[in-house]
From TrEMBL:
InterPro entries: UPF0122, UPF0122_fam_protein. GO terms for molecular function: DNA binding. Might take part in the signal recognition particle (SRP) pathway. This is inferred from the conservation of its genetic proximity to ftsY/ffh. May be a regulatory protein. Belongs to the UPF0122 family. This is UPF0122 protein KVH43_11105.
Length: 120
C-alpha cells in the first residue's frame, strides 16, 4: 500500500493540475490527509460511493496521463542518471592523485550521461 501511495503522490505532483478541483480535493484528502472514504464523504456531504468513484476515476486519469506523457518515468530516469554522475564525481575526488587516465575515463562517463540526459 505504501508503494501505491508514493506512486500516486508522484503522479499527482506531475498531473494533479489536470484534474478537476473536486478530484484534486478528494485525492488530497485520501492520499495526503489519510482520511477514510467515510470521513471524506462526511466532510464533502456526498456518499461514500461517490468518493470511491471519484478516487478510482481520478487514479485512472493520472495513469492515462503518465502512459501518454511519461513525465514521471523521464523524471525517474534523469534522477538515476544524475545520481550516477554524482557517484562518478565522488570516485574522481577520492582518486585525485591517481593516474590521469582514470580521471579522463570518468570524465568521459559523465559526458556520455550528460549527453544522454540532453537527448531526452
Amino acid at each position: 500500500m505504501f508503494e501505491k501511495i508514493v506512486q500516486m503522490s508522484l503522479l499527482y505532483d506531475f498531473y494533479g493540475q489536470l484534474l478537476t478541483k473536486k478530484q484534486q480535493q478528494v485525492l488530497g484528502l485520501y492520499y495526503n490527509d489519510d482520511l477514510s472514504l467515510g470521513e471524506i464523504a462526511e466532510q464533502l456531504g456526498v456518499s461514500r460511493q461517490a468518493v470511491y468513484d471519484t478516487i478510482k476515476r481520478s487514479e485512472k486519469l493520472l495513469f492515462e496521463y503518465e502512459k501518454k506523457l511519461k513525465l514521471v518515468y523521464k523524471f525517474s530516469v534523469t534522477k538515476k542518471q544524475i545520481e550516477e554522475i554524482l557517484k562518478i564525481i565522488e570516485k574522481i575526488e577520492h582518486n585525485k592523485y591517481e593516474k590521469e587516465l582514470f580521471v579522463l575515463e570518468e570524465i568521459k562517463k559523465i559526458q556520455d550521461i550528460a549527453y544522454d540526459i540532453l537527448e531526452k
